[in-house]
Amino acid sequence: MNTTFARSLLKALPSVGRSCQLRTSSARLIRPFSSTSGVASDAKDKSRAIERQILNAQPEATADENSALSAITKMMQGERTRTNHAVSRDYSKMAESLEAEMIKQPYADRVPPHHLHVYSHKHNTILTLTRPNGNPLLSMGCGNLGFRKGHRSGYDPAYQLTSHVFGQMQERGYLLDINRLEVVLRGFGPGREAFTKVLLGGEGKNIRGLVSRVTDGTRIKFGGTRSRKVRRLG
C-alpha cells in the first residue's frame, strides 16, 4: 500500500524524490581563485597577467610594441614611447630655439674659456696659458729661448717666443681641449705688437679661430702712494 502510494506520488511530483539542493547565485558558484572559463575568472586572469607584466622587469607574456600594455610598462620603467617623427620634431624645435638664442646673443658665454695672458713690459715678455679655473698649463718667457739680460727685451725675442708658445700648444694637444680662448693683454712693451703680428700671421692660423675675446688687463694707478722716481739716462 505504501509502495504503491509512493510510486504514484513520484510520478505526479518528480521533484519530491530528488535530494535537497541549495539554490546559490552564479557569482557564488564561481570561486575567486578558480581557473574556470567564466567571465569573472577570465577578467581576473587578465588583470593578474597585466600586473605581472608591469611589476616584472622581464614580463612572461610578451606584448606588441604599440599595445597599451607595453606603453604602460615602458612608462612605469621610465622609458618614453615616441615615434621617429615625434623625436625628429623635438630635435628640430631644440635646434630652432638654440639658433634663435645665438642670433639674439652671438657672443654669449656658453662655455668657460681658457685664458692666454700676455705680459709685455720693457724688459721681458711672458706668455701664460691657463685653464678656465685659473690653473696654469704653460708659462714661458724670452729667457726660456736662450735670451739673457738686456737681450730679452725687444720685438724679435717676443716674436720668437710667441711662435714657440703657439707651437707648444699644438704639440702638447692643448688645442683639443680648448673650445674658446680669451686673450688678456697687460703692459705696453714691444712684445704686445709682436704677439699681435704672430697671432694674425701664418703661425697663429690654428689659434686665432679659438679666440672669442680680447681684453686689456693693464694696471692703472689712481692715487695711492707716491710712485718711484722716474729713471733718466744721461
TrEMBL record:
Gene Ontology terms: cellular component: mitochondrion; ribonucleoprotein complex; ribosome
GO annotation, biological process: translation
Function: Component of the mitochondrial ribosome (mitoribosome), a dedicated translation machinery responsible for the synthesis of mitochondrial genome-encoded proteins, including at least some of the essential transmembrane subunits of the mitochondrial respiratory chain. The mitoribosomes are attached to the mitochondrial inner membrane and translation products are cotranslationally integrated into the membrane.
Keyword Nucleus belongs to the record: no
Subcellular location as annotated: Mitochondrion
InterPro entries: Ribosomal_uS11, Ribosomal_uS11_sf
Gene Ontology terms for molecular function: structural constituent of ribosome
Protein name from the UniProt record: Small ribosomal subunit protein uS11m
Organism, scientific name: Petromyces alliaceus
Chief localization: mitochondrion
